[in-house]
Design a protein that fits this description.
The chain has 196 residues and is mainly β. Helices cover 0% and strands 48% of the residues.
């Protein structure tokens, strides 16, 4: 038996460590008691589910960071996007925040535009998928800067030539943002209009 007054518990279920260092799972509603080696809990019997992904799209050729929602996510879970033709993109930097929320990054370099499914695998082997939930879009333009790097002394100036090459019929303006630069650094102009 499992002794120690377990029969006096007023809760419907209990998970305890017995005198033999076994994990004891007691389900009073069903009259069952199960024993597991220390550290070996049973797999999630219902398995994981997937509910959504945000953002639901990303441009081919670039990484995209996503938030995935569902249920039953376990630490160590892996995720991937699967194209209709079978191409797969594995998720990187997967962080399970809790059982129903995780974050990951997909590198869409070389990923063909189209509709993709999302798949998750828990470390216990259980899987979930969500068909057609993500769209890889064709990029609107290609951006190039010449030279690729410059050294500037404090208070100094430098210039780059930025070229925007439209793709897939793109005709809009492109807004530029300066990131990772020291405080006070400015970028002018901040927008490139068609034909400039």
């Amino acid at each position: 038996g499992f002794g120690g007054g377990l029969g006096d518990l007023s809760v419907p279920s209990a998970i305890l460590l017995d005198a033999y260092k076994r994990i004891v799972v007691a389900d009073w509603n069903n009259g069952r008691v199960s024993y597991y080696a220390s550290g070996a809990l049973p797999a999630n019997s219902q398995g994981p589910t997937l509910k959504g992904i945000q953002p639901p799209q990303g441009p081919s050729g670039f990484p995209v960071s996503v938030t995935i929602t569902g249920t039953g996510f376990m630490v160590g879970a892996t995720v991937k996007l699967v194209a209709e033709g079978g191409t797969e993109v594995q998720g990187g930097n997967v962080q399970v925040v809790d059982g129903g929320y995780l974050m990951a990054t997909f590198d869409l370099t070389g990923a063909p535009p189209g509709t993709w499914s999302l798949a998750l695998t828990n470390p216990d082997g259980q899987t979930a998928s969500l068909p057609g939930i993500f769209t890889v879009t064709a990029p609107d333009f290609r951006l190039a800067a010449t030279p690729s790097a410059q050294t500037v002394i404090p208070g100094g100036r430098t210039s780059f030539t930025v070229t925007v090459a439209p793709l897939n019929g793109f005709v809009g303006a492109v807004d530029l943002t300066l990131m990772g630069a020291p405080t006070g650094a400015r970028l002018t102009p901040g927008r490139i209009k068609p034909g400039e």
